[in-house]
Design a protein that fits this description.
Elements: E1 2-6, H1 16-28, E2 33-36, H2 61-69, E3 76-83, H3 89-102, E4 107-112, H4 117-123, H5 130-146, E5 152-153, E6 158-159, E7 175-178, H6 182-191, E8 194-198, H7 202-219, E9 229-233, H8 242-246, E10 251-254, H9 262-272
Parallel strand pairs: 1-2, 1-10, 2-3, 3-4, 4-7, 7-8, 8-9, 9-10
Antiparallel strand pairs: 5-6
């Protein structure tokens, strides 16, 4: 089972020097991937649905990962998750392809539909059709990355008589769909290389992975899609690994507390590293 670290570009790790040092330290200690979440804007005052206070330092994920990519060599760079309905897919396709080229093929694109009405209102996007919008945006990304002459005419996107380069290094770019609803699980099986579950304890993870396996049989997957990769983030203070690995989790992405400073983060990495410090 691969091990990743969540939260580059957040809290203490929003400081550029700390972000770079923690990224390099994670790579040296054998972590496979670094992950950044996304909120474009958060409710103020905070609501029950908001995962963070609006004052939380939280860099744009693609900019943070580009910064990290320039300071590392091997560690993979994941969005966990990017809120796809809030980003225009033509612009996003260029950004992700550029990051994949500049990092020499290290991008893992996790996407989700979003849950905060205030965030959608701030961007001017309706929440009511965010699932359909996400499906079409995923198709648009694939068209721009993979088609010789990209074309897609949809309800939200019109791509015709244009092209955009560079193409990504990875073919295909690994897309992971996040979310715990049945719609999200179906989207992962139909349209992605993987599924990302966030904050799930062992029983919750087992139930959702079981449902994913049912949907794989029900919906089928194309031969080129391969088996669905399972990436999962456990609850904040969880120290369990074996149980997740036994249920078929391919990658466990662990979250350090936002209260940790630079020294605390380095100690946290040492305690959880798949390999010792180098």
């Amino acid at each position: 089972m691969l091990l990743g670290v969540f939260g580059a570009g957040t809290a203490a790790r929003a400081d550029p020097r700390v972000m770079a040092e923690i990224a390099v330290a994670a790579e040296q200690r054998g972590f496979e991937s670094l992950w950044v979440g996304e909120h474009v804007a958060l409710p103020e005052p905070r609501t029950d649905r908001s995962p963070l206070a609006a004052s939380t330092l939280l860099h744009d994920p693609l900019i943070a990962l580009t910064y990290v990519a320039a300071r590392t060599e091997r560690v993979r760079l994941g969005t966990g998750v990017l809120l796809l309905p809030l980003r225009h897919p033509v612009v996003l396709a260029k950004q992700v392809a550029s990051l994949d080229v500049l990092s020499e093929g290290r991008v893992l694109l996790g996407v989700g539909v979003g849950t905060l009405p205030e965030e959608f209102a701030a961007v001017g996007v309706s929440m009511h059709d965010r699932g359909r919008r996400t499906d079409e945006y995923l198709a648009a990304l694939r068209a721009l990355w993979e088609q010789e002459r990209p074309e897609l005419i949809g309800d939200y996107v019109r791509i015709t008589a244009v092209d955009a380069h560079p193409r990504p290094v990875q073919r295909p770019v690994p897309v992971l769909v996040g979310g715990h609803s049945d719609a999200a699980l179906r989207r992962a099986v139909r349209s992605a290389q993987g599924w990302y579950g966030f904050g799930l304890d062992v029983p919750e993870a087992a139930a959702l992975i079981g449902r994913l396996r049912e949907l794989e049989c029900e919906l089928g997957r194309s031969d080129h899609a391969g088996s669905l990769e399972i990436t999962l983030t456990p609850p904040l203070r969880s120290t369990e690994r074996a149980a997740y690995e036994d249920m078929g989790v391919d990658r466990l992405v662990m979250v350090p507390s936002n209260s940790l400073d630079r020294d605390g983060l380095l100690a946290w990495l040492d305690e959880r590293a798949p390999a010792g410090p180098t």
